[in-house]
Every structure is written in structure tokens, then in C-alpha cells.
Amino acid sequence: MNHSKIISVSNQKGGVGKTTTALNLGVALASENRRILLVDNDPQGNLTAALGYTPGAQKYTLSKLLLTMIDSPEDIALHIPRSVIHTVNGVDLIPANGRLADAAARLQILQLSQLSANYFPEEHLACEKIMAALLSPLRKEYDFIIIDCGLKHELLTINALSASDYCIIPVQAHFLASEGIPDVLTLVKSVRQRFNPHLEVAGILLTMYQSRPQLCKSVRESVAEVYGEKYHVFERPIEQTIRVAECPAAGKSILEYEPQNPAAESYRNLAQEVLRLG
């Protein structure tokens, strides 16, 4: 029986720590002897860069895999091994760069052609399910596949959610950032109804958290009060520290860069909660 899990890290607001969460959660899970694949689903390639790679220099990327699934799915087995980077951080990576925007455009064209022709293909061929078909054979290779979603190109995010078992919603610990939660929940609900009935919200994760300021405490309490009964709020927020901002330049996670940092401990705690997912 396949017990692998695919997790999307998503919020339509920027600066909430999506990439940082995807990277550090992946490394924390890898330290628990889990096989981890990170998928950079953002044309900006921030996750790729955070692991020490130059996005524009990558020849084999998520874009190549998505276009292969669209144009010649019979060749996908040839391209997957070329596109997976075995990093020194203990995790594997499917990188991304600006060419992913071209793949997103192709997905939009495919969507329009299907709608205009009133054509409803087999589920795994629908434009919203391309990534699910792509990642399906990789499930047997990994315990967790973590997808870092970008801000734009909604079809890329829909594809990620359609492929996922769970979604983690990072939220910066102040009032305005928490407004992004309803947008993500609406998108998750739509994807669940139309493409992936098994998709669940793993939880809301407070990031850039300062334990002393009263404002952060108020946001944590309000998020738990508003969403806590229906949606899980992760036990330990991610502590704000300048060391986390220094990590991308070193191509390391905070767990490698400064293992005793409070943020590293926060991500280890998050990993333990993720391991308890059903």
C-alpha cells in the first residue's frame, strides 16, 4: 500500500514564508529518515535558488516535465530522472525558472481549448490534472513530495492542489497577512469539489512569529478562534530570526545553518506534526 503524501505549501499573499517552509520542512523530514522530493512550482525559482542553484542555468525543470506531459506523455519516464537534482541537503529537487511561465501559458491554452470544444477528457488528461499525472509515478520513490506554490499563474497552483493530499497555509503573524487565509480556503474548496475530493488542509502555520509582541499573540489567538474548530492551527509558530534570511545565500536550510536556532526547532516541531498526518 502506498503511504506517500504530497503536500502543497500555498498562500496567495507574498512574503508569508512559503518557500522557507517548503525547504525547512523538507529538510526536517529528511532528518527523520524520510525520502523527500521538493518541487519548485514558482517561475521565480526561489526554492531552487534557496538550495544553492541558479534557476536560469537549469536545463531540466518542472516546465520541461509539464510540457512533456502535455505533448508527449509517453516520454515522461525519460525526462524525470534528468529533472531530479539530488542535493547535498538530503532532499531531492525538481527545479524551476522563468520557463515555468511558458508551461503555465500552455496550460491556459489547453484549458481554453477544452472549454471551447465542450470537451471533457479522462480525468488524468484534464489541464488541471497534468501535475497529478506527472507526480503519480514518483510517489513510490518518496515518502513526502512537497510543492512550493508561487503567487501568480493560478493554474499552476490548481495543478499542485489537484495533485496533493494536503495543503499547508503559511500566514505571517500580523493582522493584514491573515487576510490571505480565506482566499486559499476558497481555492482548496473549489479544487476539492472539481478535481481532488481527497485534498485536506493540513493546517494553518503562523510564520515570522515574535513570541513577545502582543500583536503576534493576538493574531495567533484570533486565527485559532476563527479557524481552529474547522482547521488545524499548527502547535508551534515559526520564530522570526535574521538567521533564516541568511540561509538562501548559503544554500542551506536553517536546520543546517544554525541547528539550535529557535526557528530550526520550530520546523522540527512542524515536521513531527506532519508525520502524524493520516
Short description:
The protein has 278 residues and is α/β, with parallel strands linked by helices.
Describe this structure in words.
The model has no long low-confidence stretch (mean pLDDT 88). Strand 3 and strand 4 form a beta hairpin. The protein contains 12 helices and 7 strands. The radius of gyration is 18 Å and the shape is globular. Helix 3 (62-71) packs parallel to helix 5. The longest helix has 17 residues, at 100-116. With 278 residues, the chain is of the alpha/beta class.
Name the features:
single chain; Rossmann fold; 45% helix
Radius of gyration from the CA trace? Answer: 18 Å
Structural class: alpha/beta
Principal-axes shape call = globular
**What is the overall pLDDT average?**
88
Low-confidence region ranges: none
Tell me the CATH topology. Answer: Rossmann fold
- Strand arrangement within the widest β-sheet reads 3-4-2-5-1-6-7
Going by CATH, the architecture would be: 3-Layer(aba) Sandwich
Distance between the termini: 14 Å
In CATH, what is the class?
A: Alpha Beta
Helical amount: 40-55%
The protein's oligomeric status is single chain
Content of β-strand: 5-15%
Looking at CATH, the homologous superfamily is P-loop containing nucleotide triphosphate hydrolases
Order of helices and strands: EHEHHHEEHHEHEHEHHHH
Count of helical segments? Answer: 12
- Count of folded domains: 1
Main sheet specs: 7 strands, mixed
Query: What is the number of E strands?
Result: 7
Helix and strand arrangement:
Elements: E1 5-9, H1 18-30, E2 36-41, H2 46-50, H3 62-71, H4 76-83, E3 85-86, E4 92-94, H5 100-116, H6 130-135, E5 144-149, H7 154-163, E6 166-172, H8 180-194, E7 200-207, H9 214-227, H10 242-250, H11 254-257, H12 262-275
Parallel strand pairs: 1-5, 1-6, 2-4, 2-5, 6-7
Antiparallel strand pairs: 3-4
Helix pairs in contact: 1-12, 3-4, 3-5
